[in-house]
């Protein structure tokens, strides 16, 4: 269980704040305390945005890791009931929705990723609804699976963050690949492409 001393991120962008507010729809279910604590870990483009403040995503790739004593179907129904509309920094209306097709098994993911998750906090955060962001390294590892052009750009943006250790990324990625149930050879090849591009860009 995470504690108050664990790392937190104060979302400073409109999308980051909307990401927390999106889950406020669960307040009636969890605010009373009898349903325990809801916890969600966000991956994908939303997580990339929170870490790098670059590109956004209208879809929330979220792993529901804990939902207390509430029925998971009830949680999902509330989250999927309405899209969340917010205004970005330019005043343009944007729609935020949960990606119902997201699953952490779709790509490689280190088994200890929950040890590195980071709490998203705002002044209005509902205490019993905890929104976490996967670490930059774990988001990068998860993107080795689909590995489209956007995924590759996201990985490089994450790896260039000042607090990301490239050696730790390589070690954790290799460990995740070793027990990945998909095509390990392909993912290993993707990792090599990422590392080659990273070191080539660093040498320029």
- Tell how many strands the DSSP assignment holds: 7
Quickly count the helices.
8
- Give the amount of beta strand, in percent: 15-25%
Determine the N-to-C terminus distance: 43 Å
The shape is: globular
Helix-and-strand structural type: alpha/beta
Largest sheet: 7 strands, mixed
Approximately how much helix is present in the residues? 40-55%
Mean pLDDT: 91
Spatial strand arrangement across the major sheet: 1-6-7-2-3-5-4
Note poorly predicted spans.
none
Radius of gyration: 17 Å
Note the run of SSEs as H and E: EHHEHEHEEEEHHHH
How many structurally independent domains? 1
Protein described:
This protein has 204 residues and is of the alpha/beta class. It has one domain (8-202). Helices cover 40% and strands 17% of the residues. The chain contains 8 helices and 7 strands. It has helices spanning 14-22, 27-30, 44-52, 72-81, 136-142, 149-159, 166-178, 184-202; strands at 8-9, 38-43, 59-67, 84-87, 93-98, 118-120, 129-133. Strands 1-6-7-2-3-5-4 form a 7-stranded mixed beta sheet. Helix 5 (136-142) packs antiparallel against helix 6 and helix 7 (166-178) packs antiparallel against helix 8 (184-202). The model has no long low-confidence stretch (mean pLDDT 91).
Summarize this entry quickly.
The chain has about 200 residues and is an alpha/beta fold.
